[in-house]
Amino acid sequence: VGYAKGVPMGGELRKAPADKRPTFLVAAMKDPYSGNLDRIPIVKGWLDKKGDTHEQVYDVVWSGDRKPGKDGKVPAVGNTVDTSKATYTNSIGSAELTGAWTDPEFDPKQHAIYYVRVLEIPTPRFTTYDAVRNNLPLLKDVPATIQERAWTSPIWYQPAK
Predict the structure, then answer these.
(1) Biggest alpha carbon distance in the chain?
(2) How confident is the model over 40-93, as pLDDT tens digits?
(3) Sign of the four-CA dihedral 72, 46, 97, 20
(4) Exposed, middle or buried, 79 (CB in 10 Å: 0-12/13-18/19+)?
(5) From start to end of 48-129, where are the E strands?
(6) Is 5 helix (H, G, I), strand (E, B) or coil?
(7) Which of 16, 54, 108, 151 has its CA 20 to 30 A from that of 139?
(8) What is the pLDDT of residues 104-131, one digit of tens each?
(9) CB of 36 closer than 8 Å to CB of 95
């Protein structure tokens, strides 16, 4: 149904039906050799009437029982990394996340772009693995952990001309 009536990643959504807002379905599964998933945000970009660019990040679905704050952002997932051993556990996060999001501020007259990001839980950064394997101190000017991420091709919204 999504491909028959929707727009796939990298596609173009043209002329929204009257009084309708686009709804995006998202789904992701973890890499079996990496960290669990933290969250899936959608990033919306648009141009205002002056031609200035804007961006808004919306958390769509996330692991655990966290609740968005007043700013709409979900708090950090936590961190299981043991930097002294360059290890982590998948005791937080989820192996799979799915959800749907409807743009609350959709303007059918405004060009927009939407793309999805998928964030993993924190894992050791490659410099942490290198330091532990070689019995060296961690670098002071580089974070010891990282949240790996993936992102999709955008979906472009083109208003009617």
Answers:
(1) 63
(2) 999 999 988 898 999 999 999 999 999 999 998 999 999 999 999 999 999 999
(3) positive
(4) middle
(5) 53-62, 96-102, 112-120, 123-124
(6) helix
(7) 151
(8) 999 998 999 999 999 999 999 999 999 9
(9) yes
CB 46 within 8 A of CB 111: yes
- Three-class DSSP category at 56: strand
Task: Tell me the C-alpha distance between 40 and 43, whole Å.
Answer: 10
Question: How many other C-beta atoms lie within 10 A of the C-beta of residue 154?
Answer: 18
Residue type for 118, please? V
Q: Which of 45, 63, 41, 61 is nearest to 53 (CA)?
A: 45
Contacts of 23 by beta carbon, 8 Å cutoff, 6+ apart: 100, 101, 102
CB atoms within 10 A of CB 24: 22
Structure tokens belonging to residue 148:
């790996």
3-class DSSP assignment, residue 13: strand
**Token pair recorded at residue 154:** 């955008």
Here the tokens at position 159 are 């208003």
CA distances from 18 to 8, 13, 104, 153 (A): 21, 14, 15, 26
* Positions of E strands within 7-125: 12-14, 23-29, 37-47, 53-62, 96-102, 112-120, 123-124
Assigned token pair, 18: 């009257």
Identity of the residue numbered 79: N
